[in-house]
């Protein structure tokens, strides 16, 4: 097994200053590198990616699943504004700042949402982004590795080969090791009537299932976008350049046509320009893509005027519609848990050394899995979390969307928000709205994955070096708190099932001993985090009259030669981990861009 530390390092930065490329991509994260790889397949097409962060150093914390967390290359300190519904606290906004973006720092869970979610995007204006039309791109993005059949049978691992790809760049696999408590979790969930899902990637992502990971099983190391969409091809692509440690400050326009970008070299502070003869592609993630557009004159003209920025296109939807998954840690002390568990690598140095030796020898080991969150997840629709989903749906319907957006919102943004709410609420009882996972150690994680609250990304300065104002608007719609409560209460039921009760769980946070629902809700609000690092949707692919920013071909309304391809284009957030959907969406965007330039 080639160890992470022994990888040859390829650190590259080819000159870009004052040059001209066919395509310039701002941000070398998952979507940026995917699109760069696909466009540069065409030999006479030149592509430049400008990325804020460095190349990673194949650090153990990056490469080895069990060495994950803490992870280097996070964007620190990136903070939210005070969250009004959460007592005015500010929260960390987790994001990667490195070539490969989130794929270098994420927990590697690699799975898709339910078909209805993508079909709803299509209905909301992302025409052609249905499950059926995205499935070929999900397949194209991955090489799925089925697990060893004996191991699979022993650990309830199931999959559906017909929905997977077998020659794509992202290596997707199941961990070949698990902690014993995983069986208690699985059996406990099943005893509560939770359905076992054969494969969440087949269009129904509800039930309990094992998580596939973006891990190459040949080496048991991370398959990041840097590896699968850059290292994999770069030796044969003199037309594919990545400029690390460089910050795109704004898009340069001639009229409403994007003709290049201005960028700052982080080391020298020098600002340069580079021109794009075909297209500028924004892919800086869901917080920074709207910031770049706004600094370039694309956004709410009145807000930009307050910063003295001349409007190129008045697009009030830019930076609106921010969404993420609520994330609540529920800690238990397991008085008779079996050793080892998901906390043992951190708490027991002897065990960690023994497991690392096994890992280094290429044998199954606790270092094969990201122990922070566990190997399985329960994702359920509202009616499976609570017997009273009707009252939560009624609460959602009773809200005033205009007031939720702060009163007096832009009419186009309000129109899109209303359409989203209608379709999301009507699907509450059929698609997943939240999750539970348990790391088999002290930590259970609860997520609300279909929030109705919306946030914003707004300028704080005319400088790209100053982070924007990131307001998640967490729990501004009280429906989200009711969903969190429902999942929290179901988790208590889960812990009381004989399969888990045998481990002696005693809740230590957030609401030990509390039974009064109002008191529990207060405790949940005090402990929930507004982000699970799944920010999205701030340049939504919706109709312009519904607050949309890009059309179904990823083009920014009112401009020429400018597109957005990252998770900021989604109308609403997917259930579960976003990265598989980012890869697939970027594969689709690459085809669309190639087609319009006659490159397919
Ligand atoms: C800690 C963490 C854990 C996660 N765990 C999971 C998981 O287990 N499963 C899952 O599915 N998803 C997970 N995610 C989320 C997933 O990684 C993201 O949804 C995904 O990376 C988003 O892709 P993107 O292309 O939209 O943006 P990113 O991958 O974030 O890429 C954006 C890139 O743009 C760069 N950039 C920003 N501003 C500028 C600028 N001005 N100039 C130049 N470059 C710029 C950034 O440095 C970054 O590299 C996690 C994310 C984090 C941070």
Automatic annotation (TrEMBL):
Keywords recorded for this protein, A-Z: FAD, Flavoprotein, Signal
All copies of domain Glucose-methanol-choline oxidoreductase N-terminal, residue ranges: 285-299
Gene3D superfamilies linked: FAD/NAD(P)-binding domain (3.50.50.60), Glucose Oxidase, domain 3 (3.30.560.10)
Domain of life (superkingdom): Eukaryota
GO molecular function: flavin adenine dinucleotide binding; oxidoreductase activity, acting on CH-OH group of donors
Amino acids binding FAD: 98, 248, 578-579
Similarity-based family: Belongs to the GMC oxidoreductase family.
The protein, known as: GMC oxidoreductase
Species per Swiss-Prot/TrEMBL record: Melanomma pulvis-pyrius CBS 109.77
């Amino acid at each position: 097994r080639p160890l992470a530390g022994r990888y040859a390092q390829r650190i590259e930065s080819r000159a870009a200053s004052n040059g001209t490329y066919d395509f310039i991509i701002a941000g070398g994260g998952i979507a940026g590198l995917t699109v760069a790889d696909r466009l540069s397949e065409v030999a006479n097409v030149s592509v430049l990616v400008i990325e804020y962060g460095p190349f990673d150093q194949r650090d153990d914390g990056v490469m080895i699943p069990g060495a994950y967390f803490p992870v280097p290359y996070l964007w620190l300190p990136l903070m939210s504004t005070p969250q009004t519904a959460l007592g005015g606290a500010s929260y960390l906004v987790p994001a990667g700042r490195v070539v490969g973006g989130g794929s270098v720092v994420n927990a590697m869970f690699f799975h898709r949402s339910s078909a209805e979610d993508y079909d709803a995007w299509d209905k909301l204006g992302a025409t052609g982004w249905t499950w059926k039309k995205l499935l070929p791109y999900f397949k194209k993005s991955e090489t799925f590795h089925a697990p060893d059949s004996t191991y699979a049978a022993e650990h309830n691992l199931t999959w559906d080969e017909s929905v997977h790809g077998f020659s794509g760049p992202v290596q997707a696999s199941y961990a070949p090791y698990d902690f014993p408590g995983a069986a208690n979790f699985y059996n406990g969930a099943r005893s509560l009537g939770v359905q076992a899902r054969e494969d969440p990637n087949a269009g129904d992502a509800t039930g309990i299932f094992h998580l596939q990971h973006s891990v190459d099983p040949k080496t048991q190391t991370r398959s990041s976008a840097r590896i699968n969409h850059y290292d994999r091809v770069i030796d044969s692509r003199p037309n594919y350049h990545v400029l690390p440690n460089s910050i795109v400050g704004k898009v340069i326009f001639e009229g409403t046509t994007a003709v290049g970008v201005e960028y700052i070299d982080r080391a020298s502070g020098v600002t340069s320009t580079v021109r794009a003869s075909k297209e500028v592609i924004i892919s800086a993630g869901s917080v920074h893509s709207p910031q770049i557009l706004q600094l370039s004159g694309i956004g709410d003209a009145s807000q930009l005027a307050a910063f003295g920025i001349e409007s190129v296109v008045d697009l009030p939807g830019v930076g609106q519609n921010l969404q993420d998954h609520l994330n609540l840690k529920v800690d238990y002390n397991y008085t008779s848990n079996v050793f080892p568990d998901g906390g043992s690598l951190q708490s027991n140095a002897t065990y960690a050394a023994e497991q690392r030796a096994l890992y280094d020898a290429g044998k199954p080991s606790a270092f094969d899995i990201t122990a922070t969150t566990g190997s399985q997840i329960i994702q359920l629709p509202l009616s499976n979390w609570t017997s009273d989903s009707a009252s939560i749906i009624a609460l959602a319907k009773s809200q005033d969307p205009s007031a939720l957006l702060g009163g007096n919102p832009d009419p186009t943004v309000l129109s899109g928000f209303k359409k989203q709410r209608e379709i999301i609420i009507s699907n509450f009882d059929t698609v997943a709205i939240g999750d539970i996972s348990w790391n088999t150690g002290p930590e259970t994680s609860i997520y609300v994955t279909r929030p109705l609250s919306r946030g914003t990304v707004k300028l704080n300065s005319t400088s790209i070096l100053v982070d924007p104002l990131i307001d998640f608007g967490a729990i501004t719609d009280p429906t989200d708190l009711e969903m969190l409560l429902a999942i929290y209460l179901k988790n208590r039921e889960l812990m009381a099932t004989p399969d888990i009760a045998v481990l002696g769980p005693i809740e230590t946070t957030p609401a030990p001993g509390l039974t009064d629902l109002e008191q529990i809700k207060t405790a949940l609000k005090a402990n929930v985090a507004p982000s699970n690092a799944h920010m999205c949707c701030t340049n939504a692919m919706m109709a312009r009259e519904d607050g949309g920013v890009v059309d179904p071909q990823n083009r920014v309304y009112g401009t020429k030669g400018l597109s957005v391809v990252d998770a900021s284009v989604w109308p609403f957030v997917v259930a579960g981990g976003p990265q598989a959907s980012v890869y697939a969406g970027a594969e689709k965007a690459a085809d669309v861009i190639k087609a319009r330039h006659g490159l397919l």
